[in-house]
Amino acid sequence: MPSTKPQLTTREVFARNLRRARRLKDLTQESLALDAGVPRAYLSRVERGGINLSIDSADSLARAIGIPLHELVDPAKFQGLD
């Protein structure tokens, strides 16, 4: 019987992709948080999937990192980059 991975929630996908994109762009949490206008601790919780953030907050983070929001919620994006 083939093993199946549990499906990630959209929040988990966003968290994973945001963290991977930030690292690819060689940004610190501090610099991204500053650009997005959010506290660094908030960004840290977002990247861990610990916050059910609003669409406005997700959009602010996407704009600050320079990646379209739809790419940050795409499970196929940024695969294998940890």
From TrEMBL:
Gene3D superfamilies: lambda repressor-like DNA-binding domains. Residues 18-72 form the HTH cro/C1-type domain. GO terms for molecular function: DNA binding. CDD domains: HTH_XRE. SMART domains: HTH_XRE. Pfam families: HTH_3 (PF01381). InterPro entries: Cro/C1-type_HTH, Lambda_DNA-bd_dom_sf. This is Transcriptional regulator with XRE-family HTH domain. It comes from Roseateles oligotrophus.
